[in-house]
Structures
1.
Amino acid sequence: MRIGIEVDLDYRFEQGADVLLQIEAASMYDQRIEDEQLTIWSDTPIRAATGEGGIGQRCWSHGDGHWRAQYRATVAIDRVTADFSALAATAPRDLTGDLVQYLMPSRYCPSDRFEGFVRHEFPDLEGGALAMALVDWVAESLDYDNAASTGDTTALDTFATRSGVCRDYAHLLVSLARAGNIPARCVSAYAPGVDPPDFHAVAELWLGGAWHLADATRMAGCGDIARVAVGRDATDIAFMTAFGTAEMLWQQVRVRQL
């Protein structure tokens, strides 16, 4: 699978503010960057910074007045779609230090609040079988609704309203997986077929000694997803974090299969 990515961001900063961008596709073992170009219109030089866990690249910029960014890339994805339903669980005591954080509650994923639900609803499942059941449950229980959430919506809110956007699906799946002792992280990504076209968010679950992508919205297949960044929740993977007030003038994300 090869995908073409086009991103245009057009913002205004009435007062100067530093901006942390995460819009560049990550170069990884299962996805290769064939070509890419990031252009930022700013009077301040940009600076690269390594992404969470060494995955992907963040970019520091500064917005003051009219600020624009443009990203173009072609990514080749070579990833086998795995059936992780039969994969074994890893006992918490056997997890390496870098994985432990993905078993803990976080700002948007209060997984400790879901432990009773997971035990009650899926009492005989663990590992890959539990993961598959959780993906199916989230996919079938939520309605996709662009107006259902805000930047403050947590997995608990989504569980209560049973609706949300892709980041809400990812937050809820990650929370339920952690509650079932499966390390899970959120992933910002590009994928063709996302409706409406936008930055996408999915989950990644640690099973059988490896990370496995899962999109509970069912808009993207494992072999179609190009990762941008990974982290505990939306705090770590947001495409743009402005350390000040930003006004969006125009924004467009287009991803197509080549």
Note: The chain has six helices and twelve strands.
2.
Amino acid sequence: MAEWAFVALGSNVGDRHAHLAFARERLARLAGTTLVAASAIEETAPLGPVPQDDYLNQMVLLRTELGPRELLAHCAAIEQEAARERTVRWGPRTLDLDIVRYDDAVVSDADLTVPHPEIPHRPFWQRELAELMPYAAAQ
């Protein structure tokens, strides 16, 4: 059965627009997955203590047959394809993909927490969720 997944995209290294486009294209091609809608792209200041350039952020709404852990594995693979390096926590990145919500699922594992615990602290995610929610409600 297909579920709704809200995935946040972020980039602050290199061609940020191209990295977001790459992520949208790759997510749309996942087996059993349809990219239903994408939020507006917005530029935000970096979070955390590491000095770095501003981010471009966007969220996509997927209808997917992949489970949360499968989707997470695909997100990590897409980040690697975009040459993401995980050297410093909260550091700069070519591409960052976060599962923000997965339908009504609650997951609390060492490497996956859904809904994402940072939603209350990221106003841009709240705006993006609000922008995409009507697409899920209309189905």
Note: The chain has three helices and seven strands.
